[in-house]
Amino acid sequence: MTSCDATLDRLNWANIGLQLDAEGCAVLPGLLGADVARSLAQQATAPGVRRVTLESGDPGRGALFYFGAAMPAPLEPWRTALYRRLVTIANRWNETLGVAHRYPAELEDFLRHGHKAGPTRAQSHLSRLGVEDYVALHQCRDGGQAFPLRIAAVLSEPGTDFQGGEFVMTEQRPRMQSRPMVLPLKLGDMAVIATAERPFKGAKGYYRVNLKHAISCVRQGERIGLELSFHDAPRRSG
């Protein structure tokens, strides 16, 4: 058992599952710890990290730093250990929605299956946002077997390192206005969020509701964030 497994075993996963069922998100306070979070924030300049600049417009504004196949320690152990706990929820959601597909128990097997379909590119990344930078509302559902849950974290201190830059989610139910949610993430917190949709129980049974997430405009300082994806996306040709 890894130290990540030991830490996660102390959490109340029944309660986390209920939060995800009800809101499509659940905050795991202080899971990374401040020192680990700040160390990870430095990985934006590590060799092999691919920088993508967001121009002012639909995607947002700022810079994203994508990890390659080998992620820095301790992200890979965290991703593997978190997947083992979240796969039960993911498979329960598929069962609830009448989807026959079931995800394998181990992340390695899930990724191997995805790679058989062709070349892929990693989606886990850091974000570095300065004053007036933001990430627009979006979903991360690229790929035929996108995992329905992902991780978001803040690697700098709100109120000290930056102002603004709130992590925002919206949920769209049929024939209703979008419902906004702000996740109160602090330095070293992790949040489990729905990748794109979750089951919702209506008057006639369960159906899918769509969720998107974003980072609001940074008003002061610099915000470093992390998104940890369990699935890869198909590699674009050209």
Structural notes for this entry:
The chain has helices at 3-9, 13-23, 34-41, 75-96, 107-115, and strands at residues 25-28, 50-54, 60-66, 120-121, 125-129, 134-138, 149-154, 162-164, 167-172, 179-183, 190-194, 197-202, 205-215, 218-221, 223-228, 233-234. The chain has five helices and 16 strands. It has one domain (3-233): q2cbj1_9rhob like domain (Jelly Rolls), CATH 2.60.120. A hairpin with a 6-residue loop joins strand 9 (167-172) and strand 10 (179-183). The protein has 238 residues and is of the alpha+beta class.
Kindly summarize this structure in a few lines:
With 238 residues, the protein is α+β, with helices and mostly antiparallel strands. It has helices at residues 3-9, 13-23, 34-41, 75-96, 107-115, and strands at residues 25-28, 50-54, 60-66, 120-121, 125-129, 134-138, 149-154, 162-164, 167-172, 179-183, 190-194, 197-202, 205-215, 218-221, 223-228, 233-234.
